[in-house]
Amino acid sequence: MRQTSEAEYSEFAQSVWPQLYRTAVMIVRDRQLAEDLVQIALVKTYIAWPRLRETGKAGAYTRRVMVNVAHDWFRKRSWTHEDSVNTTTDEGAPVGDHSAALVDRVALADLLKTLPLGQRSVLALRFLDDLSVQETADILNVTTGTVKSQTADALAALRSHALFVTEGSHHD
């Protein structure tokens, strides 16, 4: 068993926090719950830290814990946290300077809410965390075929909704 220092874990936790948080927000659609989710995942990683053979694998381990905990929440609860994602720009940034981007973020957040949890999880891991199909499959404990089909289904749903909105917004 390899011994690692508190400093190594602390450095790891600080470096992965922002990406884990963005992924968690996309999965659970609630900023406070996302913070809780990341904290739980990091605590579980801390407990397992001495067992992790390679520090490089700690990120994948933490993502897997985070996704598993989120999926447990959805299974065990009557999930009602639907509309609490804050899609405003970063603190201090003038909204007017980013109004088109903000509209896009709000529309995307609304659209992502309509996807099933599995599809949101796949999109978060593949596109926010930039993981490969195999890495995503390993974290979600599914086959690569499932990752590919959920990605395709999610993207098709997003495209069809975007097409509907685009066609519906033309007033000739």
Quick structural overview:
70% of the residues lie in helices and 0% in strands. It is mainly alpha-helical and 172 residues long.
Model description:
The chain has 7 helices and no strands. The protein has 172 residues and is mainly alpha-helical. The radius of gyration is 18 Å and the shape is globular. The C terminus is likely disordered.
Described by strand count, sense and barrel closure, the largest sheet is: none
N-to-C SSE series?
A: HHHHHHH
* Strand percent estimate: under 5%
Radius of gyration (CA) equals 18 Å
Mean pLDDT: 76
Question: Which structural class best describes the helix and strand composition?
Answer: mainly alpha
* Total beta strands: 0
Q: Spans with pLDDT under 50 lasting ≥5 residues?
A: 79-103, 165-172
Query: How many angstroms separate the termini?
Result: 70 Å
| Number of helices, counting only DSSP H or I runs of 4 residues or more | 7
- State the helicity in percent bands: over 70%
Question: What overall form do the CA principal axes indicate?
Answer: globular
